[in-house]
């Protein structure tokens, strides 16, 4: 067990970061916000922490806190125009946001280090801290799922005019989903920068955006298991595909196409739905179902 | 005891006068009918009251409060609920969860306690699920509680939607063709529920095609045709009104 951990430690750590960013991506999607801004939020979080720690010698917890606040503030401002858009238009707007962040990082060279980025970031993160961050995120989302906010998010995704007709202030809840997505994205961006020694704009570009979206597409959009399953596939796949060397991308693409075609809800979500269907066939609900058929017969 | 009033309400879509200067009152504890042929503007009236459409002219009041310029969610929070003519459930949610979301207006636990999973928020969810379960019993659809709402037969979907709309005990509920697609027995069951709700003090606005059903339930009936109110009064008087017969059957009243 321990030898497994030591030989795969970097893989496990990047898996945990991918899970965190996956939850940031998933939270927006499950509330019906078609956002792909997670890469942008993680860039803001990563740079805020890296600059504070390397240049101003700020203590690490304070730097992460600032990153969190920056993520929330920027996502809140962004949520105002986003609330006027729907579907693909939100995707395009958030894509533009990510590109703007990258452009600014390149432009303000004196502050951000330009294309070279920031190096010499102390490596203070380890598997334990990353795991703790993932567990806290899971707890919050699990709480959301079991209470009023989760019900509202599900309603927004399926039909926001129904939510409004029941008294839900839909703009506030869209903003809440987006701010939570920004918060989680920025925090995991900060944790990532405290793990990889140096960051540069290209780490947060189109590739990062596709990566966090892929985690959710492969894993699932609605359940807690989704991002875990998605990130697991993304972590294991390159290892399995090692013999393919340069052509690993092909395997990624093939897997993505297969999952979208045959498991459109994602591997994690399909698994959870399948288990729920199995559980519904327990004897207790079996009798309920028979009552149901009686009602139909009586009609 | 609150009553909903609309005064001189107009809704024009460009040159089309969808609703043209109507007055209507929906008193508490009564079932008020709104009938009229297809395209008369009945659903437009519901959308005007609930805030989906802004009024071109006229006002909407709940007692003394003006609702005219409020947003959809604000109107709902004042206690005006509705159903949709083309049933709108959350298709992926279970029947029970579709009703639980209906309690939104009555919830007390805040966003933070939801995010942190505090006991108060969890207890509220448990309580609402129990209440929703009982409400399903009242509508005779407990057996379907676990099913995805989208998989239910049409008539049952209507019941789920009506249950959701009255879950938070609104002051006034507007039911847009609530018994469409139901047979005699089923609509009689619904009628019983509507009468119970009225007895509890709720004001009901029944938008219907089915004149017999409306006549049996309502104290006051309004008849809309091409955006104008052509008759109002007790159901037996209204259904004998020549203008109403003309609107429904077509042609001149004396020829009919």
UniProtKB/TrEMBL annotation, chain A:
Protein's UniProt keywords contain Transmembrane helix: yes
Keywords: Cell membrane, Membrane, Transmembrane, Transmembrane helix
PANTHER family found in the cross-reference section: HIGH-AFFINITY BRANCHED-CHAIN AMINO ACID TRANSPORT SYSTEM PERMEASE (PTHR30482), HIGH-AFFINITY BRANCHED-CHAIN AMINO ACID TRANSPORT SYSTEM PERMEASE PROTEIN LIVM (PTHR30482:SF20)
CC annotations in GO: plasma membrane
Bilayer-crossing regions: 6-24, 31-54, 60-80, 87-108, 128-144, 173-197, 209-237, 249-267
Location within or outside the cell: Cell membrane
GO molecular function, one term: branched-chain amino acid transmembrane transporter activity
Protein's recorded name: Branched-chain amino acid ABC transporter permease
Mode of membrane association: Multi-pass membrane protein
InterPro entries associated with the record: ABC_transp_permease (IPR001851), LivM-like (IPR043428)
TrEMBL record, chain B:
ABC transporter domain residues: 4-251
Alphabetically ordered keywords of this record: ATP-binding, Nucleotide-binding, Transport
UniProt-listed PROSITE patterns: ABC_TRANSPORTER_2
InterPro entries from the UniProt entry: AAA+_ATPase, ABC_AA/LPS_Transport, ABC_transporter-like_ATP-bd, BCA_ABC_TP_C, P-loop_NTPase
Pfam families according to UniProt: ABC_tran (PF00005), BCA_ABC_TP_C (PF12399)
Xref: CDD domains: ABC_Mj1267_LivG_branched
Superkingdom in the source lineage: Bacteria
A GO biological process held by the record: L-alanine transport
GO cellular component: plasma membrane
Gene3D superfamilies: P-loop containing nucleotide triphosphate hydrolases
Protein name: ABC transporter ATP-binding protein
Organism in which the protein naturally occurs: Paracoccus siganidrum
């Amino acid at each position: 067990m321990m030898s497994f951990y030591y030989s795969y430690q970097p893989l496990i750590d990047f898996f945990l970061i991918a899970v965190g960013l996956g939850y940031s991506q998933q939270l927006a999607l499950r509330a019906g916000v078609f956002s792909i801004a997670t890469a942008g939020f993680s860039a803001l979080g990563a740079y805020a922490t890296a600059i504070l720690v390397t240049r101003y010698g700020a203590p690490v917890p304070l730097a992460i806190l600032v990153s969190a606040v920056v993520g929330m503030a920027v996502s809140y401002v962004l949520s105002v125009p986003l609330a006027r858009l729907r579907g693909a238009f939100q995707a395009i707007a958030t894509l533009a946001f990510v590109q703007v962040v990258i452009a600014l990082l390149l432009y303000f060279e004196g502050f951000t280090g330009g294309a070279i980025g920031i190096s010499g970031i102390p490596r203070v993160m380890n598997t334990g801290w990353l795991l703790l961050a993932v567990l806290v995120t899971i707890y919050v989302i699990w709480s959301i799922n079991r209470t009023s906010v989760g019900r509202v998010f599900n309603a927004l995704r399926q039909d926001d005019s129904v939510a409004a007709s029941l008294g839900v202030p839909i703009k506030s809840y869209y903003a809440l989903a987006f701010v939570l997505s920004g918060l989680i994205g920025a925090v995991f961006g900060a944790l990532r920068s405290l793990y990889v020694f140096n960051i540069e704009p290209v780490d947060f570009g189109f590739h990062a955006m596709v990566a966090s979206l892929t985690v959710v597409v492969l894993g699932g959009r609605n359940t807690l298991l989704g991002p875990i399953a998605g990130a697991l596939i993304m972590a294991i796949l390159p290892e399995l595909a090692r013999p393919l060397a340069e052509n690993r991308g092909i395997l990624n693409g093939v897997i993505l196409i297969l999952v979208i075609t045959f498991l459109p809800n994602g591997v994690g979500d399909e698994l959870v739905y399948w288990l729920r269907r199995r559980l519904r066939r327990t004897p207790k609900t079996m009798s309920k179902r028979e009552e149901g058929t009686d009602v139909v017969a009586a009609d | 005891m609150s009553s909903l009033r609309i005064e001189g309400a107009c809704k024009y879509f460009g040159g089309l006068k969808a609703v043209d200067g109507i007055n209507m009152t929906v008193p508490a504890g009564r079932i008020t009918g709104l009938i009229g042929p297809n395209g008369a503007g009945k659903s437009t009236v519901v959308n005007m009251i609930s805030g989906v459409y802004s009024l071109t002219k006229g006002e909407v009041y709940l007692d003394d409060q003006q609702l005219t310029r409020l947003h959809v969610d604000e109107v709902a929070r004042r206690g005006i609920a509705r159903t949709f003519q083309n049933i709108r459930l959350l298709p992926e949610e279970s029947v029970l969860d579709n009703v639980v979301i209906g309690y939104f207006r009555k919830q007390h636990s805040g966003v933070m306690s939801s995010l942190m999973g505090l006991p108060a928020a969890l207890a509220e969810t448990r309580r609402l699920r129990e209440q929703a379960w009982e409400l399903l019993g009242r509508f005779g659809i407990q057996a379907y509680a676990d099913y995805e709402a989208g998989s239910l037969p049409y008539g049952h979907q209507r019941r789920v939607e009506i249950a959701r709309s009255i879950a938070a005990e609104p002051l006034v509920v507007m039911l847009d063709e609530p018994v469409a697609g139901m047979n005699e027995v089923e609509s009689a069951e619904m009628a019983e529920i509507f009468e119970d709700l009225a007895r509890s003090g709720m004001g009901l606005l029944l938008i219907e095609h089915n004149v017999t059903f409306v006549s049996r339930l309502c104290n006051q009936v309004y008849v809309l045709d091409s955006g104008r109110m052509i008759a109002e009064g007790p159901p037996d008087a209204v259904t004998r009104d020549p203008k109403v017969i003309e609107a429904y059957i077509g042609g001149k009243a004396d020829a009919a």
